[in-house]
Amino acid sequence: MAARKNRGTKDTPMQEDWKKKIQATNIINRLNDCVEGKIELTSTQIKAADIILKKIVPDLARSEISGPNGGPIEITRPEDQAALEHYRAKLTGDKK
Predict the structure, then answer these.
(1) Contact call for residues 25 and 32 (beta carbons, < 8 A)
(2) pTM value?
């Protein structure tokens, strides 16, 4: 018989970092649904989500991603370039 996976019980609780990851994912999904117009959130709900995410998700605003020798990253695959253009248009409001 196969061994049971630890899914978290009273005697063996789920690891705290996994709980935080699951919670962050759920909050991000709700915010994403709001942005896409699928649901409406009050300003209080959005502020609460912001506060919780700041506590459990690392701040990526200070992270820098660069290419070789500190230069820019080159996007060479056509599908990556298409995805980049799609999100750039979404952020700037362009209707391409």
Answers:
(1) no
(2) 0.46
